[in-house]
Amino acid sequence: MNKFSKYLTSRKVMILISLIGVYLLSSGTSWALFSYLKEDPTASTKETKENRARIDPALPKTEACPINGQKFSKPEKEIWESRRPITAVIENHKDARPLSGVSRADVVYEAVAEGGITRFLGVFYCGATTQDFEIAVIRSARVYFINWASEYGDKPLFLHWGGANNIDDKNPGGIKFAGQIAPEVDAFKLLNKIGWRNGQYGNDLDGQSNFGYPALVRKYDRLKKGERTPDEHTPTAFVDELYKQVTEKRNLGYKDADGKAWDENFIAWSFADDKALSSPKTEKISFEFWGGKSDYDVVWEYSKEKNTYLRSNGGQPFTDFYFNNEQISSKNVVIQFVNEKGPVDKEGHMFYTTIGEGKALVFQNGDVIQGRWAKSSQIARTKFLDSKGDEITFVRGQIWIEAVPSRNEINY
Q1: E strands present in 99-165
Q2: How far is CA 269 from the centre of its chain?
Q3: Under the phi-then-psi rule, with left for phi > 0, alpha for psi from -120 to 50, and beta for the rest, what region is 69?
Q4: What stretches of 304-410 show up as alpha helix (H) in DSSP?
Q5: Fold of 271-405
Q6: Lowest mean pLDDT among 128-132, 167-171, 335-339
């Protein structure tokens, strides 16, 4: 072994590399810095390309998506049956809009992250089959997003860029004071507890520590070529490349390395075809998350023609940048009233109760159903029940779940 090789494998150098790694994790530097830069971020797997080539819009839509009941063609089903769901944490800061890919999520959850600014958890599975696309902007994890993601079978792909953590000055490379993060909002602690992180081999895909180029990158000209976007609004994921990486390097396709299918214990909601009221009872839904934060006020307007709800945010149509700025719409809008606590620590984190039960409103078909929600444990499926205690059936298509503080008023 030559002197250089001995130097690289020396104990001091290995310790130095470890400390640098922890520092990069705690300071927000991307894992992509250490990724091997050689692959095309827009590449698709051969199998996906072949199946996608057989997709014809004229084909009958006979195959129901297990996530939201929407009907797709058989070639589209063949694609999703080789994969598992992506659950992606997506920011909604006003300076990051318009976002990319949100219109193709099967289910979207919205909740305040901090300071009255909301964030999304998008569940991508069936809607990600027809074509490759970008998901942006990926942001940091919160405990309640992990709790929702846990409902999507065994080892759903949890995509995020860092998260609430307590890597403090008592740890190697820690840069903040101990106890700065409240235990109940420590996302990294929960991810480790449930076994998702597991270095580069788990289903946790963290842009700050274990996942990066070519599937997840900082795209500095995301909204306009030649104009640099601030760092925090740049993390962008490429769907096909993401699936390629986790399948080839983590053995997380439809089945994992042990041969267990992701949906072995998955509990699907109930779905039905459109049945719009001839005279809609609710044509506009509006609410705020926090007072004085009008940029995050939400309005859903009902389109009788399409039997869908169109979303506006901060007084402007809420659009998908990647898909020609089409306005986001949903077949179902759910108001899940949650107890709000916080800020619970010096970093301003909020805590929302998503395990337990509470009141709910479900808007669909131009009507509203008053009921409640119930989730018995972290991995249990959230159930939405009507006033009689029967499970509510969703209209086939996208479902938006708005986690609104229980004290807030919903206008409709």
Answers
A1: 107-114, 117-124, 134-136, 157-160
A2: 19
A3: left
A4: none
A5: YerB-like fold (3.50.90)
A6: 167-171
C-alpha span between 101 and 288 (Å, rounded): 24
Write the single-letter amino acid at 237.
Answer: A
**Would you say the C-alpha torsion 403, 404, 407, 412 has a positive or negative sign?**
negative
The class of domain 3-250 in CATH terms is alpha beta
Tell me what the mean pLDDT of segment 345-366 comes to.
Answer: 96
Fold agreement between 3-250 and 271-405: yes
Residue 169: per-residue pLDDT: 52
Q: Which are the contacts of 189, defined by CB distance < 8 A and separation ≥ 6?
A: 165, 166, 183
* pLDDT for the residue numbered 171: 55
CA distance 360 to 401: 10
Given a cut of 70, whether residue 92 has pLDDT beyond it is yes
For the purposes of burial, counting CB atoms within 10 Å of the CB of 202, is it exposed (0-12), middle (13-18) or buried (19 or more)? Answer: buried
Q: How many residues does the chain have?
A: 412
| pLDDT at residue 174 greater than cutoff 90 | no
Give the start-to-end residue ranges of the domains of the chain. Answer: 3-250, 271-405
Supply angle C-alpha 388, 391, 393, rounded to 5: 120
**CB burial class (10 A; 0-12, 13-18, 19+) of residue 21?**
middle
Task: Please give the pLDDT value at position 165.
Answer: 87
Q: Helix (H, G, I), strand (E, B), or coil: what is residue 216?
A: strand
Peptide bond before residue 75 is cis, with ω within 30 degrees of 0 = no
pLDDT at 170 over 70: no
Which amino acid is it at 129? T
For residues 304 and 364, the answer to whether their CB atoms sit within 8 Å is no
- pLDDT, tens digit, 9 for 90 and up, residues 252-269: 999 999 999 999 999 999
Q: Which two tokens stand for residue 396?
A: 């086939």
Joined tokens for residue 327: 């306005």
Residue 52 pLDDT level (bands cut at 50, 70, 90)? confident
